[in-house]
Amino acid sequence: MVFLDIMTIPFVLDIWGCMPEISKNCVDMTNASSTYLGIVGGAVIGAIVSWWIYNRQKYTSIKQDHILGRIKDLEENHTDILKKLEDFDDKHESSFDAIQEINKKIDALLKKSEDESK
Asked: Is residue 33 packed enough to be buried (19+ CB in 10 Å), middle (13-18) or exposed (0-12)?
């Protein structure tokens, strides 16, 4: 693998065309070098934007997974609470029925007591 150093960059760019920003012997940038520079600049900007979008999507995905996990935990807790409320309602209903039975018996005893006292 050949590594380019600062001195060989102007030579490589001279192959593409005259770039006065890099080569000292140029008067003006050619259309070819302008095109290549635009392609390289666009590739760099595109890579930065692509990385930024990927990074944001990854962050959003991690947050969504965390939120979905919390929703699952809350749903399980909600199911447990509903089951406990249902059990409480069943006990409450049986207690209410027992109180009504006692109330009927007391009413019957009071009526019997009134009938005997007359």
From this structure: buried
Rounded distance, CA 10 to CA 4, Å? 10
Phi-psi region of 2 (alpha: psi -120 to 50; beta: other; left: phi over 0): beta
Alpha-carbon distance 47 to 41, whole Å?
Answer: 10
The C-alpha R_g of the chain, in whole angstroms, comes to: 43
Residue type, 81: I
- If residue 44 lies in a helix (H) or strand (E), which one and from where to where? helix 31-117
**Predicted confidence (pLDDT) per residue in 21-63, tens digit:** 666 666 666 677 678 888 999 999 999 999 999 999 999 999 9
Helical packing angle, 8-16 and 31-117, nearest 10°: 100
Residue type for position 118: K
What is the pTM for the complete model shown? 0.49
Cα gap 78→73, rounded to integer Å: 9
